[in-house]
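User
Here is a favour to ask of a fellow structure person. I am asking you to supply a protein in sequence and structure-token form. Please set it down just below, with no commentary around it:

Assistant
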Amino acid sequence: MTDHRYDAADIRIIEGGEAVRRLPGMYFGVGLDSPELPTRAFAAVVGWSLHPATRVAPVHALCVEAEILGDLAFSVSDTASDALGEDGVPIIGFGSLIGSGRWCGWAVSAVSARTVVEVWRDGRGLRQELAGDLPLGEPEEFVPPAGAGTRMEFALDGALLAPGAVITADLGSLDLHGPGCEEPDGPVRLRLRDLR
């Protein structure tokens, strides 16, 4: 048996989206070679919008809209504006308007060619576009709808995915009350539209 000692030359640090692209199974339960990845990515973002981790948002977001825009494109909107502080100042997480509590959205952005994030509250709206998980610029103002919310639109990068991979809209894998949830079942409004 050979005794191998590790030194700095043996260590490779991977950061940000590269970590997701190299080890997508840690985020979605399947690899880039799986045709299930688009559906798993879609389900992860919808599930997180419906029921984020209790430490991030103890109250469930009961109103979620999800649209399948194409075989590899979707958007998810909810009524939480966690990336916009009470004072209207953006709370940057993962280097973008994808709030630090929305790790699923960030992970999906890492396997996307394009992501658009919109956050609004109290009449102020901010929008930011990303290529992969990297912002293309600073958040920009836009005229928001009423109320508060977050909308993320993803165009998955077909060059990274298995041939024939598409979103199947299989929502059977969604767990509306994740691990550690003690909230009773209640009314949840999920509106899903497949626009293909």
Remarks:
- The beta strands are 63-70, 73-78, 112-121, 124-131, 134-135, 140-142, 149-156, 189-194.
- Residues 37-50 form the longest helix (14 residues).
- The mean pLDDT is 85.
- The CA atoms of residues 52 and 58 lie 8 Å apart.
